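Good morning,

Both structures are done.
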Amino acid sequence: MKKTTFVNGRLSRTMFFYIFGEVVFAFFVSFLFFFFIFFVNQLLLMARQILEKKVPLQQVAFLLLYSFPSIIALSMPFAALLGTLIAVGRMASENEVLVMLTSGMSYKNIFIPVFLVGTLVTFVSFGVNDVLLPMGSIEFTKLYRSILVSTPALEIEANSVKRFNGTVLVTGNVSKNKIADMLILDKTSEGERRIIMAKSTEFVDAGKDGINLDLTDAFVHASKETERRDYDYASSGLLSYRIQQNDIIQNENRISAREMSSRDVYYWIKKRESDIDTHYSEQNKQTLETALALETALRKGPEGRNWNQRSNQLSVFARQKSEASTIKADQQLSLFRLEFFKKFSMPMGAIALVCLALPIGLATKKSGQVMGLIFGMIISVLYWAFLLVGQNMGIKLGYSPFWTMWLSDILAVMIGLGMCIARVRR
């Protein structure tokens, strides 16, 4: 190690850049490691969903290219964690940290360059999340949409429910281009609701015209929206059903929060909240009017002219109250809020994981790089599991988007700072 001088216990430039360079180098190596893992994962997903559908390799290559920002965004926090563990763990196991402390340095002098690396990674990661990721997602969606036109088989999977514009497909087992136990729910231009069932279905790519489904042993049930008791049914040995190209494209045409910057998502949320409040107020007004009419009918009793309508008014009141609750529990708004907090929590995960990695690395006694790799992988898996569980709880169970996205970072910072304070006081 190079000879280093200290002035009043302060860290010299030489030692600062030595620690900084060690952490930066370990970060880049770790970044390549995680980038390769997530890249292979993305490649395997595309091999399953796209390559087996015989999509041209050039288009697959561009899809992978547009996936790079998301892979980079995922890799950076974990690379900051693993890089800190490896660099600090190596210096601790080779007694470099001990030499620094006995030479007059304090733990603060070691913490500063490490936290600076974590801060830089956080800012770069935020830029990737807020600029490159939306751009990549938009281009990915455009290309995927164009692929759907020529290869609509991408949208038909086994044992799944797929919604197109006004059409719901429920599929059974899929073998090559044949589907068992197909169920189709749709609505005709005349307003009739149809249920179509078939024992087997052959999928035919109609090119620019969309998708043809040749249904074998089909049964069709059609009923009017206003009069459910008035219905027709028919059976057919062979029935052809077509899903238009425009319906396929429209299904992929909505802009998601992932394709927007944090600023755009914020303004979208504010506008959506304003629209929901307005709609909710109107719905509450209608509910109140129905409740007042029902109260009036009950007060006047059998002599009132609306007495016979009380049952209908009660059912209308219950339906309006339920609709008001549905308006407040807006699923799309919850998704955008979750994505908004995710755009900040993921980049901040870099500095949070550095806080956790630093005291663990300092506690390493031997084989610092190996132990750093082991601890890094364990913490990465736990952190990733927390993110996935939190995201699912926010989407499916309606938990607070803030806490579901920030809890893992907050825990990492609290545990890391607690361990740092304990080590300094020792």
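Second structure follows.
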Amino acid sequence: MNAAYRFDDWETPAAAPQNPAVDAKIAPKIEVDRGILPAAALAPVNAADKRIVNGKADINQLAPFKYPWAWEFFLKANRNHWTPLEISMAQDVHDYHHKLSPAERHVFENVLAYLTTSDILAMRNIGLAVMEKMTAPELQIYQARQVYEEALHTWTYQHCIENIGLDQQEIYNRYRVVPQIHGKIALSNRRLEKALRSDLDLTDRANLHEFALSYFFFAVIFEGCWFYNGFTPIFALQRRGLMKGAAEQLQYIMRDEVLHCAFGIRVVRELLKEEGLELDPQALRTLWDEAEAAERAYASYILRDPILGYNADLHVQQFRFVANRRARQVGVEEPFPGAENVLPWLDEQANLRKEKNFFETRVTEYQTGGALAWD
């Protein structure tokens, strides 16, 4: 092996290039590396130079923090660690094949079909679009955890599909062949597509507004409304003692998504303040209207036949109520004034600290919804 390419030899210096022109260029660096010449000093990182985007500080230096709340999100997310293998699905197999009505199976399958695609989309958006453009490492490190969690959620849906014995190809392709499911994914792709561009210049105010609007859609609507509201059909089954294993899996996912949404809302608020930016009210109105239309079409399909205690109208009403809550948390106008909380039990699903039978399930400590701070 050429000595220059040996990685187990820490003593012998690498062979110098033989090209005189190259030698001349790298000689000063070699002398610095050997301690013969002093390296040029760099200014220490000043936390005030950090920004959510377009920052001037060293992206590789975590502290000092400018956004200590982002680091707290990372610590909290790690305290919430879990895997789908911790929850038994044995009773769900029996429920699905022997207890669920055709309408209930339709609901269960299509909720899974939508979620399997949505979490992969979320993973790609954070990993390929958002992390790249945020210039404070304390923000990026939480988002790295978020990417992992989206992958974990996808594993969870796959775990449910495998245990129950569903046709994987058929379930995973529903987002392509069912227009009402495809509509939500297509809208998401359209709203997030520009933010995925690696050449998006965020020093341009128009591009910065576009990015902020895209991130608003992702954090507030996609995760804060669609995901938060999207688990409710399964929770409605759980409240009747059906599909309890799958529902508990979704409770763990919901807890992660609440953190994702809370983080995203904080980022949006800080970004708008830091950049002196205001989201265009008409652009927001269009976002909300598109999101509600897609959610209404989706609900009309998955709940085409109501199930006991739950129907499409309740689903849409709850979406409108949650949308108002998210708008207040960001500090923008409520999109659906007067919307009522028709499913007051939904918030309870985010609280997993409850008594469990030791012989039925593994107890996993998980923080309560009351521990979350939205501001």
